[in-house]
Amino acid sequence: MPTEASGARLADVSEAIDDDYPWPSGPWVRALFVMTLDGRVAGPDGSSRSISGLADRAVLGAVRRWSDAVVVGAATMRAERYNPMRVNDAVSAERIAQGRGAAPRLVIVSGSLDLPWSDAAYSESMLPPLIVTTEHAPAEARERVPATCELLIAPGDRVDPMWLREQLGARGLERIVCEGGPTLLTDFARAGAIDEWALSLSGVLERDRFAPVLARCQDDFVFTRFIRQGDQ
Description:
Elements: H1 4-16, E1 28-36, H2 54-65, E2 69-73, H3 74-80, H4 89-97, E3 105-109, E4 130-134, H5 139-143, E5 150-154, H6 161-170, E6 175-178, H7 182-190, E7 196-202, E8 210-218, E9 221-228
Parallel strand pairs: 1-6, 1-7, 2-3, 2-6, 3-4, 4-5
Antiparallel strand pairs: 8-9
């Protein structure tokens, strides 16, 4: 668990990096995720927490702070066990002054509706989570969706990302953060529904830690060098 001091430092860092992740005017989908050097998006504990760190969490907080919706897949919700989607009073007031909701809205895509409904994220978020499924979802599974959530049913046997984007836009949710997991990100990418990729490379591996010593952009590439910590 983060200490009170680390929480304060995280807030300070998040405030400082807002300018690195600006939101353009109009509808925008930002794919945001962390990946290790060997291509994994989760650590030994099955979640992204074990490959993350203070800087990565600061980016997550900064991107979410002024977003309208945070979209995640069911597998990610089961693995990560999200906390309630909330912001502090000052940020909430500023969001409302900007014409946005009091907090980002959690949007969960699940075909089976097999979700950990007892988690606080479904009942204690500042705005009702939007649960998105298909018309093929079992009736008994739909009945288990808590009254604190809104259920949105997509036509057909899958949730089309462009359809979902339109549905969110109709609710005034234009600034969308898609946090995955890999299946959902792939679906969004194949549908052409992503406007921006925000990838954080983690040098935290299962047995080693690597520190970045170079990051250079040229053409359509980012060239990096990471060195095992302790090596010259």
